[in-house]
Amino acid sequence: MLKIVVCVSGGGTNLQAIIDAIEAGRITNTEILAVISNNAGAKALERAKNHGICGICMSPKSYPDRESFNQAFTDKMTELAPDIVVLAGFLVRIPPQMVHAFSNRIINIHPSLIPSFCGVGYYGLTVHEKALERGVKVTGATVHFVNEGMDEGPIIAQKAVMIEQGDTPEILQRRVMEQAEWILLPQAIDDIANGRLEIRDNHVYRC
Ligand code: GRF
What we know:
By secondary structure, this protein is α/β, with parallel strands linked by helices. It has a single domain, classed as Rossmann fold. About 35% of the residues lie in helices and about 25% in strands. It contains 6 helices and 9 strands, in the order βαβαβαβαβαββαββ. The protein has helices at about 15-25, 45-50, 65-80, 95-100, 125-135, 170-195, and strands at about 1-10, 30-35, 55, 85, 105-110, 140-145, 155-160, 195-200, 205. The chain has a 7-stranded mixed sheet, covered by helices on one side. Helix 2 (about 45-50) links the parallel strand 2 (about 30-35) and strand 3. Helix 1 (about 15-25) packs across helix 6 and helix 5 (about 125-135) packs across helix 6. The protein binds 5-O-phosphono-beta-D-ribofuranosylamine.
């Protein structure tokens, strides 16, 4: 059984996609140990509660400095001891010591086709604003392992989404979620849970 902890900050629609996929049997062999949010008001925590999943709030704002948060967050994760940490719209930078302790065991969903529209400052609606500003015709989403860099770890899966005339950042964000994120992230978890992925030389292969 793959034990996962899901980290969230906001709406939690990706978390919901994971919960629904587990309940529908589209993700097998997987159990959500806990959901961690940096934001006590996150709708994601409500979603966890509705499904009997333990919700934990841990915010950098409640610590005197970043280093004490980083240590407390890493200690909490070590205590929960998941096989995989899933970042599903988590807006807090993962502490370096946690990346190290959970090497190739943290995955993230990003709402663009990496390496486009990613890196520092590219989160939330900004990603879609920038894609529309640049006039690209195709965007999408990426699931990747997390390393010390920002959106730089080995890519697990990507899915393209067409941009349509008249798109606003909000419309595009919703389409990328519906057509890519809510499909890709559950699939990646199911692939990991069922031993279908292998990392060699910083690349992910299906086996
Ligand atoms: C998603 O677009 C995800 O790709 C990004 O943050 C958003 C989170 O949405 N990292 P939700 O909280 O899952 O609804």
